[in-house]
From TrEMBL:
It comes from Streptomyces niveus. Coiled coil: none annotated. Residues 92-102 have a biased composition (Basic and acidic residues). This is DUF177 domain-containing protein. Residues 89-110, 181-202 are annotated as: Disordered. It comes from the Bacteria.
Length: 202
């Protein structure tokens, strides 16, 4: 929670804050990458008083953890998320809302609007959205990561010469036939030539 009492309600009043907060639970992209619960989140915030409420602008910095989508190795990545949000005064409707707005528009605005309660506002939902947008959907340990072998799972960065002899699936059925022929030729080489004894008798 952040306190706006010192800022006052005089339009144009400014206040700057620097604060470190503990990351809440599930602060990131579930199962992909995120800031661990309790890890420090460094905040630099600017509060500006306006007619309707307080305009909050700032940057959140933290270290996210996850795993590389290519090789599954652990990934640590610094993340910086910028945000800006308006927190409205509860009584701002009388003076801050356009008289030409339709009732349906008002209802939609109320759903998205964040409010100041007793001079306090909760920044967590805003930070959560900003951090999620700043995180990579497919984190990698490095851009050149070669990933894992699709056949045996070996890490290709550690075995750059690793490969499997690929067989065109269209010829796979003939592969067995070739091996059978080779085996038959080998048997004939190991055994005597059927006509050899007749030649020796002559």
């Amino acid at each position: 929670m952040f306190d706006t009492h010192e800022l006052g309600r005089r339009p144009g009043a400014l206040k700057r804050l620097t604060r470190s907060a503990a990351a809440p639970k599930d602060f990131g992209i579930d199962g992909v990458i995120g800031v661990p619960e309790g890890a420090p989140v460094e905040l630099r915030i600017r509060l500006e008083s306006v007619m309707e409420g307080v305009l909050v602008t700032g940057t959140a910095r933290a270290t996210a953890e996850g795993e590389c989508v290519r090789c599954l190795e652990p990934v640590r990545q610094d993340v910086a998320a910028d945000f800006q949000e308006m927190f409205s005064y509860p009584d701002a409707d009388d003076r801050g809302r356009s008289k030409q707005a339709e009732p349906a528009d008002d209802a939609e605005d109320d759903e998205d609007r964040l409010y100041i309660e007793d001079g306090l506002f909760d920044l967590e939902p805003v930070l959560r959205d900003a951090v999620v947008l700043a995180l990579p959907m497919q984190p990698v340990c490095r851009e050149t990561c070669a990933g894992l072998c699709s056949e045996c799972g070996i890490r290709l960065d550690e075995n750059p010469d690793h490969h499997h002899d690929a067989v065109d699936p269209r010829w796979a059925s003939l592969q067995g036939l070739v091996e059978t022929v080779k085996d038959g030729e080998k048997d004939n080489m190991d055994g005597a030539d059927p006509g050899a004894d007749k030649k020796q008798e002559k």
